[in-house]
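Fold it.
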Amino acid sequence: MRCSLFIMVLWSALAGLAQTNFDYFYMEAEKSRLAGDYSSAAELYQHCLDINPDAPEALYNLSLIQFYLRQDSLGTAMLRRATELDPGNPWYLETLASIYMNRRDVKQAVPVLEKMAAIQTRRSDVLSQLAHIYKSEGETQKAIDALERIELLEGKSGQLSVDKFALYMDLGEKEKAFQELQSLCDEFPHDMNYRVIMGRQYQQVGEMERAWDIFQTVKQKEPDNQSLKLALLGYYEEQGDTLSYNHLRDSLLYSLSTPSELRVAMMKDFIYRARNDASQVEPMKKAFDAVLAMPQQDAQLLSLKAAYQIYAKEGDDAVAETMQKILEVDPANEAAMSHLLQYYVEKNDIPAIEDLCRRGVNAFPEELAFHYYLGVSLYQQKKLTEAAEVFQQGLRTREEDASPQLVSDMFAILGDLCHQQNKTQQAFEAYDSALVYKDDNISCLNNYAYYLSLQGERLDQAEEMSYRTIKAEPKNKTYLDTYAWILFMKKNYTEARIYIDKVVDPEEPEDSILADPSLQGNVIEHAGDIYSQLGDVEQALRLWQMAVRKNDDTCTPVIGKKIKKKRYILTEQ
């Protein structure tokens, strides 16, 4: 007897010690999890399970870490075990249900949701989810039962009754379906919209007289009911009563009391009819003119008109005019701004681009396109400092998912701006950033390589970057000139001539070379420099003189000395 008592005391002590150890390690695991150290937390939760394999709290928290680590199968098994050990825990059940629903595993989700609904009897959101699943799975009566449980919790509502009506109709129980709508009308006798709903449903099943009687009853009580007027439009259309339809439609379209959403819906219907009946196009356009002549509550109708103009291919100018009107009503309409920006860019309308993008930058500071085109427009106007500031601001405020191409282009242009402002180091840093976002940004590679060669820095790297550009675009004269110039700077004159001849063909007549818009004076000067270093003074003089005749202010300040002394002179940096 004493031995048994001793064993019981010892066992109790050991159990208490185990629980103490479990509690300690569980708290340490919780601290690690809350600190974001999931690796340590996982180890500590596992140690808890080594002490007590049936601890649901440890299983649950470790399962969440497994999901985080994308060990979904293991996480699901642990979570399912936790719910088995603690079947009344709503948090465990809700997590398991969400896992199944995310996988679209309805078969597994339904029993869990049903258990949740049984435990938390006032969870109408769970019942609603079940009703949706039951309906989609063809278990119509179960869906009705779930909706009725919601109705007991929340009371009768229009949406619930309409949903139950549809389900009864699916079952072929027409009488019960209409009884449901009648009970809704009885519950809310002063809300005529529910009677309109019932009338429209009678219309749907072909009981036109009953529908008409209901509509007339509503009309007597609320002659200005908007839902009724829409229902009557459908009724007149189905009856083929064109005169009544047009009269009611026009009264709604041109009434100042008609809500904007309703007017837009009616104009959408008008457009749909016009698309299928050419005779309706002109009346539809006249209706647009009339409704747009009225005070506009918002830009919805103008946006609808613009969408129709694009569909009907009425021309870019007409669409742009409508987009301008949209901005007059809604100055921060991003869709209109974006469309107009594209329109102005295609027309190269620099003042319009600048004005629009200034508004865009203020309204949408995170949208890079407005910063980009504003900066470009300022660049083209030689406002270099302001352009650089715009690019820098845009790059600071950009969103994380901004287009890598656009980010790269902005850094590349910022590099060009810094170079023109004699900020060489900042220029190179900007180019480096551009290539981080898109390492094959060809124009950036070209400019970076060229400016490195002008500085006489990192010529091997410059050659490698420049070579990538001519591989990408082997006929681009700008890129060929850069590559030839880098070879020249590396004193590889013979190979430099091979590439510069592809840019400035020495066999071509002078007038043809001078008429080429892609050839600037400095490019022709480069060709002269290369020929000079190869000892062909006559050809060098001819090319230098042509470069001067180009008269585009791109030649070096010492080109006159080159011609006078008949030799290459290093350009002052």
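The two ends are 105 Å apart (CA to CA).
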